Automatic annotation (TrEMBL), chain B:
InterPro entries: MetI-like (IPR000515), MetI-like_sf (IPR035906). It comes from the Bacteria. Residues 62-253 form the ABC transmembrane type-1 domain. The keyword Lipid metabolism does not apply. GO terms for cellular component: plasma membrane. It is a multi-pass membrane protein. Belongs to the binding-protein-dependent transport system permease family. Its main location: membrane. Coiled coil: none annotated. This is ABC transporter permease subunit. The lineage of its organism: Bacteria, Bacillati, Actinomycetota, Actinomycetes, Propionibacteriales.
Length: 273, 265
């Protein structure tokens, strides 16, 4: 009991508090300052935040829609289907797939001498590599979607399973067409669960670091990479505290998203089993 | 639910497209790792897999990662299992707090923890030395939410209070209750927690790279520019291992639930 709380205090609470306090500290004197927080308002930092939000938002929506479709297809296979169990297990694996391995997988597919790049180049003369978009923000969107879709499948499938067949039967009995059922019953019921899942995906992408750290070679298009450069930079003193401020910015964004998620979760459970 | 033939065709096509999207990067990685380059041009070879063991830096990094996985599981079990049993038996009022703390690492991005943990690690290094194995502390925090869920569901499935009271009335001490009565009954949950912990530790890059420890992912990333094929072979080998662990986990969890119809996803 005590070792548990002690351990978490040292390795989870202390680091988080260090970050938040450090964000308001002057790197050299250790005194209170708003300088680090003000530095977050610089055009470079704002631009990075904007790109980070764009990346998280677009992959959350893309992964959300594709994942919801895939989840529906899987659920429609019926509860005893072996294919359904297998796909759900694979989704569980792929949602954890990230970091170094994922970056390598996409480089081996779409990199300069990647499988698809070579096949398209030699086969139909189409240049998919271009100017190396894989190593920038566009590449990150493609690569992140790869783990967002299976995550969506995992978090959204329970909601789809909770959609009672009786609702559909009742709607059909009252003369509804398939389209009317989805537009007036199915989709409204699933909307909170869908939005909640998308928020979870957003936080997931926003916090991801490893894949981007491997993939992106030039510049720091997203917040986690800017934090890395603030931590490892030896050019400017006091950069570490800018890192703290950026990390605090991440905590704030993720906390807002997860707060909204908790609110939505409360609404979701009302109609679904 | 009954579906028409049209829907079945569309479903098959779409599932096929999804499968293609998900398996293509994996296939190309496997393909890349066995294609000979340079002097081995044009050959299919397992040379780069052998290189993983032959290269000394890489070998020691792989050993570090495997050891770290083992230590993480050990520390996680020692910290978490007695605490969770104790909370259920003696201090149910604290269960919300423990749950909140265990799930907290899902909300605080790992990168943020790394940024703040440098001071803590200065002390850790001072007390325990500078081997990669000290990462075990950070990794236990990282795997906590997943381990907690696995063990919690196993504990919910048994009647801990009755078991403990029966054992106590027969004269067992608290240590005996925890290690010899409750533990054997939640072994599936603990194994599940161990599997996911190993899978996460073997792929972890954020902590290891920013705190400058050479684990397998860090070593692979370091040689990627010069020895691409070896790096990709290592990455493919690790994803195969991790997938087997996680697939094993999901089949494991299933065998506990006899009826598919009433199962949660």
């Amino acid at each position: 009991m005590l070792p548990f709380f002690g351990f978490l205090a040292v390795f989870l609470i202390v680091p988080t508090v260090t970050v938040i306090i450090g964000a308001f500290q002057d790197g050299e004197t250790g005194g209170f300052t708003m300088g680090n927080i003000e530095a977050l308002g610089s055009s470079a930092a704002i631009d990075t935040l904007r790109k980070s939000l764009l990346l998280s938002g677009s992959t959350a929506l893309l992964g959300g829609v594709l994942g919801a479709v895939l989840a529906y297809l899987i659920v429609s296979l019926g509860p005893r289907s072996i294919l359904r169990r297998t796909t759900l297990s694979i989704a569980g694996v792929l949602a954890q797939f990230g970091g170094v391995t994922l970056a390598f997988a996409w480089i081996s597919l779409l990199g300069f001498s990647g499988l698809l790049t070579v096949v398209l180049r030699d086969g139909i003369g189409f240049d998919i590599y271009g100017t190396g978009w894989l190593y920038g923000l566009k590449g990150l969107i493609v690569v992140y979607t790869y783990f967002q879709v299976p995550l969506m499948v995992i978090v959204f499938t329970p909601a789809l399973e909770g959609l009672r067949p009786q609702l559909k039967e009742a709607a059909v009995n009252l003369g509804a067409t398939n389209f009317q059922y989805w537009r007036m019953v199915g989709i409204p019921l699933l909307t909170p669960a869908f939005l909640g899942s998308v928020l979870l995906l957003f936080a997931n992408a926003f916090a991801a670091y490893a894949t981007a750290a491997i993939l992106v070679s030039q510049g720091n298009p997203i917040v986690p990479l800017l934090i890395r450069s603030a931590l490892t930079s030896e050019v400017l003193l006091g950069q570490q505290n800018l890192g703290f401020a950026l990390a605090t910015e991440m905590i704030v964004v993720v906390a807002i998203v997860m707060g909204l998620y908790a609110l939505l979760l409360r609404r979701t459970s009302r109609w679904l089993r | 639910m009954r579906h028409g033939a049209g829907f079945r065709v569309v479903r098959a096509v779409l599932l096929g497209l999804f499968a293609l999207y998900f398996f293509l990067p994996l296939i190309s990685m496997a393909n890349f790792s066995v294609q000979g380059k340079g002097p081995l041009e044009g050959e299919i070879t397992f040379h780069y897999y052998a290189e993983l063991v032959r290269n000394e830096d890489l070998r020691s990094a792989i050993v570090s990662s495997l050891l770290l996985a083992a230590f993480t599981v050990l520390l996680m079990v020692v910290l978490l299992v007695p605490t969770m049993i104790w909370v259920r038996l003696r201090t149910p009022g604290l269960s919300r707090t423990v749950e909140f703390l265990c799930l907290l690492p899902l909300t605080v991005p790992p990168l943020v923890i790394v940024v703040g943990i440098t001071n803590v690690y200065t002390w850790v290094n001072y007390l325990l030395g500078d081997s990669p194995q000290v990462l075990v502390f950070a990794y236990v925090v990282l795997v906590l939410p997943y381990s907690y869920r696995s063990i919690d569901s196993a504990l919910s499935a048994i009647d801990v209070t009755t078991l403990a009271e029966a054992a106590r009335s027969l004269g067992a001490g608290w240590t005996t209750v925890i290690t010899r009565i409750v533990m054997p009954n939640i072994v599936s949950g603990v194994l599940g927690a161990a599997f996911i912990a190993i899978a996460l530790v073997l792929g972890e890059y954020v902590f290891a790279s920013l705190l400058h420890y050479d684990t397998m992912p860090v070593a692979l990333a370091a040689i990627y520019k010069s020895e691409t094929s070896t790096a990709i072979a290592g990455a493919f080998a690790s994803i195969v291992l991790i997938s087997l662990l996680l697939l094993g986990l999901s089949f494991f969890n299933r065998s506990k639930a006899p009826d598919v119809g009433g199962q949660k996803a």
